[in-house]
C-alpha cells in the first residue's frame, strides 16, 4: 500500500537492502518523520498497534499468543511495536523458525527500556534509523553535487543553487517533517510547535514511565536550543536553566536528556578522535543538536523573519540544518557524522567517516565572507592528521548558504546546501 503524493526517501533503498539480508528490520526514529509511510511502501500486510479500535485487542493477544499477530503476507509491518515489547521476542523466534529473509518490518518512535526484551535480536533483526527529510528529499536541493561522487574522486563540480537565504530560513523553521514539507505557506511552521508541545506534555513522560515536570522539560529544550551547534557541557545547560528560574539536579538533568534521546528528539554529534601528527589534545565533548533544527526554532518561538535579523543565531541553526542533511547523506553511503575540535580551537563542523575508512572534513558557513578562513582551517586540519594511519581526506568542503558550487585552486570544494545530495 503506497501513500499518495509520497516523496521518495533515502531510507527506501536502505530498507530494501536490509530486508534482503535480515529476517526483520526495525525502523527507528522521531515521531512524524515518515517511518510508517516508508514501511507501508514495502510492506505486504500491516498491524497498527495504535489503532484505537483494536489496540486493546492487539495488546491482549500479544500477552497471550503473540504469534497470531505475526500472521500475514510478508514483509509484515508491525507499527509502534514497543507498545507490546513482547512482539520483539516473538518476531525473533518466528524469524528463526521460518529461516527466511525479509519477514517483518517493525517501526518505533521510542526506544524501550533495556529489560523489556529477552534477546537483542542480533543476527535476526537489523536496525535502520530514519530522520526527518533532507533538503534533497523535500525537493529543495537540486542534488547537482553528490557526496558519493566526491568520495569517489570526482573533482569537476559546477552547479548553482536556487535556494535564497529567505528560503533557507523558512526550511529551518519548517523542518523536514513530511506533512509540513507538503505545505508551502505559514501553516507549515505549526507542526514543529505542535511537536514540541507533544514532547513536553506526553512523549517524554511515556518513554520510561517516570514523571517529569513539563515546564522543566520545556526549559531544558529551550536551553538546548540556545546552545545548538555548540559543545555546551551538562553544567552549562544546568546553569542556563537556572537563569530561567528552573533549577534541576545533574542526575535529573541527565535523566531528562536520556528520555529525549530515547524518543529521538536530541541527536548530539560525537567528537571525532583521529590519530594526529603531534600530541594535540582533542576536545571530546559532543556538539548539541536536535534531530531537526525546527525543534530549536519552535521552542525559542522564532520564525523565519526573526532568525534573519539575528545572523549569529541563524548561523548556528544553519549548521544544525547542514548536520541533519549530512547525516542522511552519509547514512546512504554507509557512513556517520562527527565533529572535530582541538585545544588550539582548530575545528571542522562536520566529519563524514565512511565505514570503509574514507573520511572528509566539512566547515559550515552561511555567507561567503568566511569562506577563505574556513578553507584555510580545513587545510590546516588536514596537515595535523596522521594520514599514514588515517588516510588522506577524500575531500575538504565548505558547505554554504550561497549560490555557486565550485572547486578552489587549493582543492577545497565550495558547495551550497541547495546543491547537495547523497
Alpha plus pi helix count: 16
Number of strands: 14
Main sheet: strands, sense, barrel: 7 strands, mixed
Spatial sequence of strands, sheet with the most strands: 7-12-13-11-10-9-8
Distance between the termini: 27 Å
Structural class computed from helices and strand pairing: alpha/beta
Task: Describe what this molecule looks like in 3D.
This protein has 422 residues and is an alpha/beta fold. Helix content is 40%, strand content 16%. It contains 16 helices and 14 strands. The chain has helices at 10-21, 35-42, 55-64, 86-98, 147-151, 165-174, 178-181, 190-206, 214-226, 234-243, 250-262, 293-299, 304-308, 311-332, 371-384, 387-390, and strands at residues 24-29, 45-48, 76-79, 104-108, 125-130, 145-146, 159-160, 335-341, 347-354, 359-365, 395-400, 404-407, 413-416, 420-421. Helix 8 (190-206) crosses helix 9, helix 8 (190-206) packs across helix 12 and helix 9 (214-226) packs across helix 10 (234-243). The longest helix is centred in the C-terminal third of the chain and has 22 residues, at 311-332. The mean pLDDT is 93.
Secondary-structure topology with pairs:
Elements (H helix, E strand, L loop, with lengths): L9 H12 L2 E6 L5 H8 L2 E4 L6 H10 L11 E4 L6 H13 L5 E5 L16 E6 L14 E2 H5 L7 E2 L4 H10 L3 H4 L8 H17 L7 H13 L7 H10 L6 H13 L30 H7 L4 H5 L2 H22 L2 E7 L5 E8 L4 E7 L5 H14 L2 H4 L4 E6 L3 E4 L5 E4 L3 E2 L1
Parallel strand pairs: 1-4, 1-5, 2-3, 3-4, 6-14, 10-11, 11-13
Antiparallel strand pairs: 7-12, 8-9, 9-10, 12-13
Helix pairs in contact: 1-2, 6-12, 8-9, 8-12, 9-10, 9-12
